[in-house]
Amino acid sequence: MTDSQHTFCIAIDGGGTSCRLALKTPTGVVSVRRGSANVFSDYETALETMRDGLAELCSKAGLDVRQLVDIPLYAGLAGVVDGAVARSVAEGLPSRHALIEDDRHAAVIGALGARSGSLIGIGTGSFLARQSQGNIAFIGGYGPVLGDEASGSWLGRGLLRRALLVLDGLEDTSDLVESCLSEFQHDVARIVRFTIAAQPADYGVYAPRVVQAAKTGDVTGRVLMEAGADYICKALAALGREPDEPVCGIGGVAAHYADFLPPEIAASLVDPQGEALDGALELARRFAVQIRQEQT
């Protein structure tokens, strides 16, 4: 395939839950889905997942895996915290043209396309971004220990924190808190033991209950959702969002903040144009064009 870098490109959208890979060919797009690919929490497994996915892509497209070396590859991956990680991942993949970034960039391009606007990415974790005149600025995305404000895991942790304060007599209870405490038999030790091994997704299980309770007026639910909405507003302001500028929400929790945001922001919420894999494909296309220009 002498012109592979001109007509073929590969995109990878790798997250902690699943990894999606797509191969753009002259006749269309072939895609596959694999398991987790977080290069921070499990580097070797992530690389193995991507390599296996690339082999499956080749099989579906009728290519020899040895042809991968000449196909430009773009990957937006969870856990790419710096350039050293990106370079290490690139060296571990079977392409001599590999561009590796964290997964936020592809999410923005997939959701907004070329439009100017802001993005609130709120699922189990969270980040915010703003695209203007082709430039993208980010806030957040720092993980569950020091960040992920307003996210599903953050709401779950907030509920359990509130439950402990109620048991200590420092806060008033609510129906939401009592429901949570019942699961742990009102036992501090059971809650603490849960937190020892709990992952972000385990905390995120409580997010739908927080959202529903808040919408029915539960004081604890409202406190948590209003705190998350306040963080979103501050982040949008820090990003320089203009009044009436569209705000795109992605992730399973983002849309639920509409009832808790100021009317102007809520009225500016728009649906995403596409998914992160769509954004990764566009960035892969741009990367392939860049390589072609550098080679001519």
Automatic annotation (TrEMBL):
<dbReference type="Pfam" id="PF01869">
    <property type="entry name" value="BcrAD_BadFG"/>
</dbReference>
<feature type="domain" description="ATPase BadF/BadG/BcrA/BcrD type">
    <location>
        <begin position="12"/>
        <end position="283"/>
    </location>
</feature>
<dbReference type="InterPro" id="IPR043129">
    <property type="entry name" value="ATPase_NBD"/>
</dbReference>
<protein>
    <submittedName>
        <fullName>ATPase</fullName>
    </submittedName>
</protein>
<dbReference type="InterPro" id="IPR052519">
    <property type="entry name" value="Euk-type_GlcNAc_Kinase"/>
</dbReference>
<dbReference type="InterPro" id="IPR002731">
    <property type="entry name" value="ATPase_BadF"/>
</dbReference>
